[in-house]
Design goal:
The protein has one domain. A 5-stranded mixed beta sheet has the order 2-1-8-7-6. Strands 3-4-5 form a 3-stranded antiparallel beta sheet. The protein has about 120 residues and is of the alpha+beta class. It is elongated. The protein contains 2 helices and 8 strands, in the order E-E-E-E-E-H-E-E-E-H. The structure holds zinc ion.
Length: about 120
């Protein structure tokens, strides 16, 4: 039985923008906003000459993505369908989401905020 993704613990966000390996996004709590940032945004995580990766994804964006996933899971459950979300892609408010892995409802999701990372 497929559990509804109702917990943040079941969602892991990654940045795949120009990285050899997906980078797990870090939750930042600043006075202005709470958002996820690529670890390569920080100089301490970069190699010499590696550019800063600017890919902030705000908590309310992620909430919309989680709601969409819950809707898909709910619809599949109603239809009695097995659901695996691996490779599912969708875009909400110019943020792209790609499910890299679906391990029984624990999701690795690549995120890219097109509002800011476009070159
Ligand atoms: Zn990145």
């Amino acid at each position: 039985m497929y559990d509804i993704v109702n917990s943040w613990q079941n969602v892991h966000l990654f940045c795949c923008k120009n990285h050899k390996e997906p980078q797990e996004m870090e939750l930042l709590n600043t006075p202005k906003a709470i958002f996820y940032a690529c670890p390569k945004y920080f100089e301490k995580n970069r190699e010499a000459g590696e550019p800063a990766c600017i890919n902030p994804v705000y908590l309310n964006d992620v909430e919309k993505a989680v709601k969409k996933i819950n809707d898909m899971v709910g619809a599949a459950a109603m239809a009695d369908n097995e659901l695996n979300l691996e490779n599912v892609k969708f875009t909400i408010d110019n943020v792209d989401y790609t499910v890299l892995k679906d391990d029984n409802g624990v999701l690795d999701i690549a995120v890219e905020n097109r509002k800011v990372v476009r070159k």
